[in-house]
Amino acid sequence: MLAHRIETTVKDDRTLTLENLPFTSGEQVEVIILSRPRKISEQNKYPFRGFPVQYIEPTEPIAQEDWEAAQGLC
């Protein structure tokens, strides 16, 4: 069995076009489509970068119940 690998991009109408295949006309083939993971540079690693940060009373003590509840999250 001959395997042939092609990388292409899905068009806006959600179709693919495969050209110049090394198979003869009328030959039956099996097609498996795998999505490629995005490159890290294409992903938004820091989605909140540039957003303002506001600390409301950051030095005020917190209630004992709130402290115990937060300890359960770790």
Care to describe what's here?
The protein is low in regular secondary structure and 74 residues long. The two termini are 53 Å apart. It contains one helix and no strands. It has a domain of 35 residues. The mean pLDDT is 85. The longest helix has 8 residues.
**What oligomeric state do the depicted chains represent?**
single chain
Shape: elongated
Instruction: Say how many strands there are.
Output: 0
Helix/strand/pairing category:
little secondary structure
* Succession of helices and strands: H
Q: Name the beta content range.
A: under 5%
Mean pLDDT: 85
Percent helix, as a range, is 10-25%
The DSSP helix count reads 1
Radius of gyration: 27 Å
How can the largest sheet be summarized?
none
Low-confidence stretches: none
Termini gap: 53 Å
Describe this structure in a few short sentences.
Helix content is 11%, strand content 0%. The protein has one helix at 64-71.
Provide tags for this entry.
single chain; 74 residues; little secondary structure; 11% helix; elongated
Helices and strands in order, then pairings?
Blueprint: H1 64-71
